[in-house]
Structure formats: structure tokens, C-alpha cells
Write a structure and sequence with these properties.
about 375 residues; alpha/beta; Rossmann fold; Dihydrodipicolinate Reductase, domain 2; 2 domains; six-stranded parallel beta sheet; 12 helices; about 25% helix; globular
Length: about 375
């Protein structure tokens, strides 16, 4: 019998769910034993449910083709068969909040790709290299939910991965003000070029809710767990303002960023801080952790999606074009893979961290 943790994928037929399926195909710790989706997919095999809807270059893994899709609303039936779940359900925020709490109350850890619980004060929003200690808030969440094993943890918005890691590496220089403009791939909307004809030869200067997420979510990541309040208190600085655009790229979110610092670091100090930055995932050698979290590229025309989006299997961050600015102190360009580090891969790394910390266990 396999000693791997038994995993269920909620929302398994969507694009992020499909990415979970492919990334977990040969995972050393986790095994997908259950897939769930909307009632219209329930009762079909996974292969049947994604027929004509499979959006990834890799084929459907053989191990999941014949799994029968369950209705995601069958909480007790699903909870009986898994050790934990990844959530990528496509519902309204209120519906997502409700169903993720139902799973947690059924004593199932939930690692979510969704935004619904990102601002629930006692739900950790984790980038494992940046704020692994935020898992300390889980005990307060369990106290609120009345659970001993179940809880919810979330990963942050995909686009902030292209600049928040750099700012985290520069924390000692005290960044105070940030302008971040993101150029976001269509897969971030769950689409490819076949079902997004509106993006061809076009740039769309609006992505609903994205700018608020880009400005607020890093503040929670940089915040602190307050034992008195039993929640995460967001950081007060730096102040971030952003604009978010959809561009005709399949994978990869690019950010053009301007930053002011309280201290006055040199370019050499900033680059050294990027290249040496690592965290608990690297120390523990977690299965999905990149060996090098952030790379700095010296060429004038890098990072580029074409060459750099798959750095460290899409789990690393690429930074380039760091140079002084006439108004701000410095400016740079960042790039991250939005469905690997930014979505399913980031959540899998989060689950690996939570397992290593003892929060996700076998039943």
C-alpha cells in the first residue's frame, strides 16, 4: 500500500485543477485518489469530464483517467476518502467560503488556490520562502472552527509572485513606496488562445479585482501573527499602487516595478540580496522547491517569457533590468510562471511545507 498522503482535487476539471493533476502525477509525498467538480461533471470518468476541455500541453496522466468525478458538494463522502484537498473550485466567493469551511469542519485540511479566504484574518496566505511562520495562526483558526485537524490555508494571487519575492529579499533596505504594473497571461483567466480570441493582437487594460489584490495581498504576507488578536495583522508598508493588464501570452506574468527605499542600497547589494535569498523550502529540500528561488539576469532584454518562464520548472522567479530611476530610487522587471509558482505549484509547495510542519498528516 502506498505511504503517500491521499489527495483530493476540488475543481479538478478547470485549468488550475488540470495543472494540479499534472504536477502531482509523480509526486513523492502526495497521490491523487479523488477528483471532484460541479454536478454536471459528476459520474463521468475524469478523462470523459475533460474531453474537449483539456488545456495543457501534457496529456491527462494515466493514473487519473478512470477516476470517477464526484460532486464537490458531497463533502462527507469525499472527506472519508482523503487526507487533505486542494481547492480550485469555480463558484462565487460566498459559495467558496462556505464549502471550504465545510471541508475544514469535516476535519480535512484545505489548501486553496481561490481568493475567497485570503482576507479571513486567521487563514494563512503563504509563500513558503517568505512567511512560513504564518502557519502559527492555524491553531487559532481551528479554535474558531472547532476542529482538531481541519483548517484552510491559501496561496496568494498569481501576479504578485513576479515582484513580492524581490521586495521580500530587499526587506532589510526598507522599501517604502512601490508602483507595480503587471502584464498578465491569458491562462490566469483559465483560458488558452483557442478560447480567448479577444486577446489576439490586443492588450486589455482591466482585470477585475486584480489591482486590489496586487496592492493588498503582499501586506498580509509581510504581516505578523498576533497571539492576542488570534489573527494575522497586515504590514503597514511599503505602500503599493498597481495597474494590471491582460496580454497575448499563454504563461507568465511580467511586472514593471518602481521602488523607493528608506535605506540607500547599491545595485550590487540589491542583486546579491536577490541571488542569496532562500527560505525554509530550500533548507528542507521540499520536493517542489526551486534550488534557486530568485535569479538575476544581466542581459538588457531579459527576463523574457519565451526564455525564462520555466526557470526552476516554473517555480523560480526571474528579475532583470534593475537600474536607477529619475523619480523613484530603483526600477526593475520581474517574471513568474502564473500556473506553476503562481497557482497549483505554489499551493503544492505550501502543502509540502504544512506537511513538514506537522499540520497535514495521514488520518
Amino acid at each position: 500500500m502506498s505511504e503517500k498522503l491521499r489527495v483530493g482535487i476540488l475543481g479538478a476539471t478547470g485549468m488550475v485543477g488540470q495543472r494540479y493533476i499534472t504536477l502531482l502525477a509523480d509526486h513523492p509525498w502526495f497521490e491523487v485518489v479523488l477528483v471532484a467538480a460541479s454536478p454536471r461533471s459528476a459520474g463521468k470518468t475524469y478523462e470523459q469530464a475533460v474531453a474537449g476541455r483539456w488545456k495543457l500541453e501534457d496529456p491527462v496522466p494515466d493514473a487519473v483517467k478512470d477516476l470517477v468525478v464526484l460532486d464537490v458538494n458531497q463533502v462527507s463522502e469525499i472527506a472519508a476518502q482523503v487526507d487533505f484537498v486542494f481547492s480550485a473550485v469555480s463558484m462565487s466567493k460566498d459559495e467558496i467560503k462556505k464549502i471550504e469551511e465545510e471541508y475544514a469542519k469535516a476535519e480535512i485540511p484545505v489548501v486553496s488556490n481561490n481568493s475567497a479566504h485570503r482576507w479571513t484574518p486567521d487563514v494563512p496566505m503563504i509563500v513558503p520562502e517568505i512567511n512560513p511562520d504564518h502557519s502559527d495562526v492555524i491553531k487559532y483558526q481551528q479554535e474558531r472552527l472547532g476542529t482538531s485537524r481541519g483548517f484552510i490555508a491559501v496561496k496568494p494571487n498569481c501576479s504578485i509572485q513576479s515582484y513580492a519575492p524581490a521586495l521580500s529579499a530587499w526587506k532589510k533596505f526598507e522599501p517604502t513606496q512601490v508602483i507595480a504594473t503587471t502584464y498578465q497571461a491569458i491562462s490566469g483567466a483559465g483560458k488558452n488562445f483557442d478560447d480567448a480570441p479577444e486577446i489576439l493582437n490586443n492588450v486589455i487594460p482591466y482585470i477585475g479585482g486584480e489591482e486590489e489584490k496586487s496592492e493588498r495581498e503582499p501586506m498580509k504576507i509581510w504581516g505578523k501573527v498576533d497571539p492576542q488578536k488570534k489573527e494575522i495583522v497586515p504590514a503597514a508598508s511599503p505602500v503599493i499602487t498597481s495597474q494590471c493588464l491582460r496580454v497575448p501570452v499563454l504563461y507568465g506574468h511580467t511586472a514593471a516595478v518602481f521602488v523607493n527605499f528608506e535605506e540607500q542600497p547599491s545595485k550590487e547589494e540589491l542583486i546579491q540580496a536577490l541571488e542569496s535569498y532562500s527560505g525554509v523550502p530550500q533548507e528542507l529540500k521540499l520536493p517542489s522547491a526551486p534550488k534557486q528561488f530568485i535569479q538575476y539576469l544581466t542581459e538588457d532584454d531579459r527576463p523574457q517569457v519565451r526564455y525564462d518562464v520555466n526557470f526552476e520548472h516554473g517555480m523560480g522567479i526571474s528579475i532583470g533590468r534593475l537600474r536607477p530611476d529619475k523619480i523613484f530610487d530603483w526600477k526593475f522587471v520581474g517574471l513568474s510562471h502564473n500556473t506553476a509558482r503562481g497557482a497549483a505549484g505554489g499551493a503544492i509547495l505550501c502543502a509540502e511545507l504544512l506537511k513538514a510542519q506537522g499540520y497535514i498528516t495521514t488520518k
